[in-house]
Specification:
alpha/beta, 4-stranded parallel sheet, D-amino Acid Aminotransferase, Chain A, domain 1, binds magnesium ion, binds adenosine-5'-triphosphate, 363 residues, 3 domains, Dna Ligase, domain 1, single chain, 12 helices
Length: 363
Amino acid sequence: MKKIGVLFGAENSFPSALVERINARNVNGISAEFVEVGAPQLDKAPPYAVILDRASHSVPFYRAYLKHAALKGTEIVNNPFWSSADDKFFNYTLAARLHVAVPPTVILPHKQLPNGTTDRTMRNLQFPLDWDGLFAYVGEHGFLKPVDGGGWRDVHHVHSREEFFRAYDQSRDLCMIYQKAIEYSQYFRCFVIGRRKVRIMAYDPRRPYEERYVKNAPPTSRSLLRRMTRDAITLCDALGYDLNTVEFAVEKGIPYAIDFMNPAPDADLYSVGQANFDWIVKEVADMLIAKAKSAARASSLRWTAFLGAGTGRANGAAKKRTARKPITARPESLSAAPAPAPAAPTEEQLRAVSLCRSSMLEV
Ligand SMILES: Nc1ncnc2c1ncn2[C@@H]1O[C@H](COP(=O)(O)OP(=O)(O)OP(=O)(O)O)[C@@H](O)[C@H]1O
Ligand SMILES: [Mg+2]
């Protein structure tokens, strides 16, 4: 019997619905249960063919266990090595490289010295910082947020230099990024499952938490949907995430990728709503069953191919593609070697796109 394990934290509705769904499918030789872990020994393989990880981003013990499990042959969703290596500044840099629109963004030195360091540790830092240059690039209307944040923790929306410095002063020893605010007319959150299936949900971050997945969003255009689909798949494929949400803020018709480092995205029934929840449970269950059947192993780092260092699919395909200009305020700040423009989604991928009725469009 191959086991699918679900590792989770404080959430309630999604893990149990998923286990029930997989077991109700009654697939020969496959069952699902909640992971149970004690003090793992390095010479013992965990009893799971596949583990869905919803918790290791906040529990280092789980992260270490999952990396060990991956080496012992368990397929982990999401790959704990990708998650360990990832951060938002890298995300945006990679996105720009892949011709996905992102806002101008800088990374800032820690406001307070990280624990265990002194002034002497920081002698490579420019002082004073070129604040005028920074505000000329990003602007004074922006978002200050942690480079590896989540759950809106320590996210500050600022409208002036004064507000910026007040927020920066509060950032303790966190590593922060500062990013131009997109003045959006529409906002979408897209679930991407198995780097192939996409559900585009209208999402209004300005509303109270329980009302964000909005019911009556205005229709949007087919070309915008195609572009968000393509960009969402491109990002998740490059980053190696089998389960992720990609958020887009749309300004003047351009979908800017705002946050796509959500390897344990909120899938709670009470926030996403019944229709989205049912879709997510079904698609994640199908993906996990397929992985358990194929017993596939984690592949090598995917983004090397997108950085021009590897020999992966992206590079091979690049020969046939025409490079498009990256959409950032300062394309010249990217490194010299342009990445291949991503391919348009295949017909199969487009068929796989599921659109929440509330974000509907004429196709
Ligand atoms: N550049 C931006 N332009 C406009 N809005 C932004 C921008 N950056 C962040 N926001 C707003 O701030 C919110 C939180 O930012 P972000 O998603 O990066 O943080 P997070 O902590 O990862 O949040 P989440 O838990 O929703 O994933 C976004 O949902 C969006 O509403
Ligand atoms: Mg996030």
